[in-house]
């Protein structure tokens, strides 16, 4: 397998059932409590606002916990992902939760070919999503093509500074070591684990990822015909992204030593310009 999508899909297909079984995702909570929301959407909710009655699509939805949560807030949701194993878990979760969510299999760049263009009030994408894509401008054009005029993009994502840090130095220092700006060649990782607790040793250990600067992301959104309406940087992230982080109430994590020196995540919002 040489195509980055094939390499990454194999990794996510293997991860999906172990993520679905993990306490971190806690799929059973969606069945126990009809008002349960994922920690990610709970964090997003103040900036997300009232989404009742909106038609939304969640790009790179993985196993659907955030997608189902958005549906519980009143949006008519579609989830899109390139991993059939992830979508199988997402559909199982939606049934478990009693949520009417459509799930569609496609990579992000193929979304305009499988979804109705210009029909969505909300395009939502979350943590750890765009790092799997090689071209941020192409991503932004996809988002714009899906939104109706006046429709909104909402993305909360790991900060490019966080993605560029090296955390395994012998002196314990955090160092900017990986690319901050977008490059054609990916950073290739080898890892036989994942970000949830599991004893499973993974066979598909290779992933290809890309970073890009905050300015590149904003520029891509503007060039695609959207107007920026919000950009907030946060000092927390919803997983233990670096060794020795402190867990905060609500499921967020933060660098223990002087956390305000480091942007952990950001929320960007934009509206498609009426034509």
From TrEMBL:
Molecular-function annotations in GO: methyltransferase activity
One Pfam family hit: Methyltransf_12
Keywords from the named record: Methyltransferase, Transferase
Transmembrane found in the keyword field: no
Highest rank taxon of the organism: Bacteria
Domain Methyltransferase type: from-to ranges: 58-153
GO biological process, one term: methylation
Descriptive protein name: Methyltransferase
């Amino acid at each position: 397998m040489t195509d980055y999508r094939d390499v990454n899909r194999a990794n996510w297909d293997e991860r999906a059932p172990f993520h679905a079984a993990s306490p971190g995702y806690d799929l059973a909570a969606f069945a126990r409590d009809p008002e349960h929301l994922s920690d990610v959407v709970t964090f997003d909710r103040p900036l997300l606002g009232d989404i009742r009655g909106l038609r939304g699509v969640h790009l790179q939805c993985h196993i659907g916990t955030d997608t189902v949560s958005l549906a519980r807030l009143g949006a008519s949701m579609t989830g899109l992902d390139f991993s059939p194993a992830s979508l199988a878990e997402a559909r199982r979760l939606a049934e478990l939760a009693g949520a009417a969510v459509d799930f569609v299999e496609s990579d992000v760049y193929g979304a305009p070919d499988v979804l109705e263009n210009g029909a969505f009030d909300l395009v939502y994408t979350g943590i750890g999503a765009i790092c799997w894509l090689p071209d941020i401008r192409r991503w932004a054009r996809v988002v714009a093509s899906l939104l109706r005029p006046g429709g909104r993009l909402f993305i909360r994502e790991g900060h490019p500074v966080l993605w560029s840090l090296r955390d395994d130095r012998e002196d314990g220092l955090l160092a900017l070591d990986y690319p901050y700006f977008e490059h054609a060649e990916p950073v290739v990782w080898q890892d036989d684990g994942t970000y949830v607790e599991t004893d499973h040793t993974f066979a598909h250990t290779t992933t290809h990822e890309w970073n890009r600067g905050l300015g590149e992301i904003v520029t891509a959104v503007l060039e695609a015909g959207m107007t920026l309406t919000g950009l907030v940087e946060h000092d927390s992230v919803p997983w233990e992204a670096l060794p020795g982080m402190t867990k905060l109430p609500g499921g967020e994590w933060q660098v223990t030593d002087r956390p305000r020196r480091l942007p952990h995540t950001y929320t960007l919002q934009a509206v498609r310009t009426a034509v």
